[in-house]
Design goal:
Blueprint lengths: L1 H16 L3 E2 L18 E2 L16 H11 L4 H23 L10 E5 L5 E3 H15 L4 E6 L26 E9 L10 E9 L17 H7 L11 E7 L3 E6 L4 E7 L4 E6 L10 E3 L10 H12 L9 E2 L5 H11 L2 E4 L12 H14 L3 E3 L19 E4 L1 H12 L4
Parallel strand pairs: 5-6, 12-13, 12-14
Antiparallel strand pairs: 1-2, 3-4, 6-7, 7-8, 8-9, 9-10, 10-11, 14-16, 15-16
Helix pairs in contact: 2-3, 3-4, 6-9
The structure holds 2,5-anhydro-1,6-di-O-phosphono-D-glucitol (AHG) and manganese (II) ion (2 copies).
């Protein structure tokens, strides 16, 4: 009975609601980026009319059916094999980090290019993810929070540059290997964020070029990482919490998988994640309140007192790891944000590997993501580690913030 109910539910949702879209982009002729052109084409969607009671729909099956129906996504399915493996390996490392024998807690002793102290697990997670994606043979270039910046935008004092290049490259991956790593020593939730763009196959890069040694063409190729969120072909996050989750979007809807430790597979647990349109939960580091912009202060004050647009008194929830906070926001509804403030006008979160992929997922779940004045997905990054003010979540509540900014007379 359970099998057929699940099968019908999944089959109905898939045939009715899903039509993956693929997007292509035009790479700029030089390293300066011009507007992108999106080509949207509908593709066939899988219908799971037979589901094994023991395994459910695994991520592997999901991606292979997507690839069978949409041959142009075959390479993406292979890349997701790497994501699958990396997330399982990272979940295991995070879980085992609490054991006295693991010796993976605490600081590495290095400072990353953004001036942040790296935790041991930041470095390990970066390495695991990099290798898992690289050895799929489908990756052209990657940019990571824990890697130095590519090409000419690299600061003078940074000598080392790691760029992963493979002969059959097709994709560019951007990632935050371990998000919320300040939570790690306490065993609280952390995550991984991944964004995938198409890579220009005509790029010819000397993988040994560093900074100004790179030619203009090589610089332009490396600038493949500097694409706006609207060019993303896929985004995913893994959450390491009471369960391990992997949520992904391929451009039409959000699919959530839960790791079944017994069989070692991610199993489809929510085939159509939709965020509630209104909420009563806000998720900010409210210690920064005094430094926020006035419209945000006004809206949040209204939510605290129940005098806002919805006349609802909000509660506050804040994990301090974006993946955890956004995951809860997707499921319960709410507004998560790390806005700009007087001290840090661009906030704290990074556009490329936190802002854009999580905005893609949020929008695909029916929510919104804004800086207050601009859709995060449309921002063209100028540098790899660029920060972005962000407020995302339930449509009606984020719209209340956007309206407040619209009416703001500075
Ligand atoms: P990371 O660990 O990858 O540097 O990201 C931490 C980010 C994000 O996950 C979280 O929302 C935010 O930092 C928390 O910052 P505060 O401690 O300033 O609230
Ligand atoms: Mn992060
Ligand atoms: Mn991180």
């Amino acid at each position: 009975m359970r099998i057929s109910l699940f099968a019908v539910t999944v089959a109905t949702l898939y045939s009715d609601a899903l039509a993956f879209t693929t997007k292509a982009f035009h790479r700029p002729a030089s390293s300066s980026l011009s507007a992108t052109v999106e080509k949207v084409s509908k593709t066939k969607v899988p219908v799971f009319d037979e589901v094994c009671d023991t395994t459910g729909v695994t991520l592997k099956r999901f991606m292979s059916e997507v690839a069978m129906l949409n041959p142009e996504l075959t390479e993406l399915a292979v890349l997701f094999g790497g994501v699958d493996t990396a997330c399982k390996a990272l979940a295991n490392l995070v879980k085992r980090s609490q054991l006295p024998s693991s010796e993976t807690l605490g600081y590495e002793g290095n400072v990353n290019v953004q001036g942040e102290d790296q935790k041991k697990l930041d470095v390990i997670a970066n390495d695991v993810l990099k290798r898992a994606l690289r050895f799929t043979g489908r990756l052209g270039v990657l940019a990571s929070e824990e890697e130095d910046t590519p090409v000419d935008i690299m600061p003078e004092n940074v000598k080392k540059q790691e760029i992963v290049i493979d002969e059959s490259e097709k994709y560019v991956a951007v990632f935050d290997p371990l998000d919320g790593s300040s939570n790690i020593d306490a065993g609280c939730p952390t995550g991984t964020i991944i964004g995938i763009y198409e890579h220009d196959e005509n790029c010819d890069i000397d993988e040994n070029c560093v900074g100004e040694e790179c030619t203009e063409l090589e610089a332009a190729c490396l600038a493949n990482t500097l694409q706006p969120g609207t060019n993303l072909v896929a985004a995913a996050y893994c959450l390491y919490s009471s369960s391990t989750f992997l949520a992904l979007t391929l451009g039409n809807g959000v699919y959530m998988f839960t790791l079944d430790d017994q069989i070692g597979e991610f199993v489809l647990s929510n085939p159509d994640v939709k965020i509630p349109e209104s909420s009563n939960i806000m998720s900010f580091n409210s210690a920064n309140y005094d430094n926020w912009d006035q419209p945000l202060k006004d809206v949040v004050k209204g939510w605290e007192t129940g005098t806002g647009k919805s006349q609802t008194a909000f509660s506050s929830r804040y994990i301090g790891a974006m993946v955890g906070d956004v995951h809860r926001t997707l499921l319960y509804g709410g507004v998560f944000g790390y806005p700009g403030d007087k001290k840090n006008p661009n906030g704290k979160l990074r556009l490329l590997y936190e802002g854009a992929p999580m905005s893609f997922i949020m929008e695909q779940a029916g929510g919104l993501s804004t800086t207050g004045t601009q859709r995060v997905m449309e921002i063209i990054p100028e540098i790899v580690h660029q920060r972005v003010p962000m407020i995302m979540g339930s449509k009606n509540d984020v719209e209340e913030i956007i309206e407040a900014y619209d009416n703001w007379k500075q």
